[in-house]
# Entry
Amino acid sequence: MGVVLDPLTGHEAYVGRLSIPYLTKSGVVDLRFRALADEEPRYMGLSGATTRLYNVNAFFRATSYICICEGEIDTITLDTVCNLPAVGVPGVNNWKKHYTRLLADFDNVFLFADGDQAGNEFAKSLSREISGLTVIHMPEGEDVNSMYRQEGPEYFTNKIASVRG
# Structure
């Protein structure tokens, strides 16, 4: 990860944006670019890139449970900062049916749904698809990253612990 300062030819539109690599065991398979200031579009992707789950390496270190977030930044916060294995969907409309099969071997799947209408709809949709999904709704207007800044990592570990017993 890093900020684009000296872009490759044709990538000038990404200057000043955070470059977020999509890593797999075989290396970088995609890049997304996030605005650092309050500008639109907030996220940009490479032309012709296929939408995929972010942080798939979490599947290899997760044991009995895994978390799902909306967006790369929330996934980084939950997985790296809070040390909870997490994958991310780059926007609720980018969920693909075959992702469900990737979650089949986990005893628990936790969805940390953003506190907005899109997060609520995403939670409803995934609840129909994933057997035993536990939805943890963020407060209205909040997401994983904002709740981490307000409450710290214990907020999330306590949410999971209260469900897992």
User: Anything to note?
Assistant: Strands lie at 2-3, 18-24, 27-34, 43-45, 65-70, 86-89, 108-113, 133-137. The CA atoms of residues 158 and 164 lie 10 Å apart. The domain at 58-164 is CATH 3.40.1360.10 (Dna Topoisomerase Vi A Subunit; Chain: A, domain 2). The longest strand covers residues 27-34.
